[in-house]
Amino acid sequence: MLTLEGVTVAYGAVEVLHGVSLRVDEGEMVCLLGANGAGKSTTVRTISGLLRPTAGRITFLGERLDGRPAHAVLTRGIAQCPEGGASSRR
To answer: Which pTM was predicted?
Structure first.
């Protein structure tokens, strides 16, 4: 259903994801766990189209998503709902 194959992402000259691969099949739930700075948010932002990978491939239902803008990824059914921020502290 959703696959990442060898996804690499950089902020400028600094590579922050190094060949990330994962697969989420229909009906599965996946949780990304890790320390601060481990790349969880960067991975989700890349899947959502907010960041572009410098290498690798992202597919959803057999269609490539890597390099597509966020609005195009959203129309295919992928969205993120981040927690935190000022509104959640009320």
So the answer is: 0.86
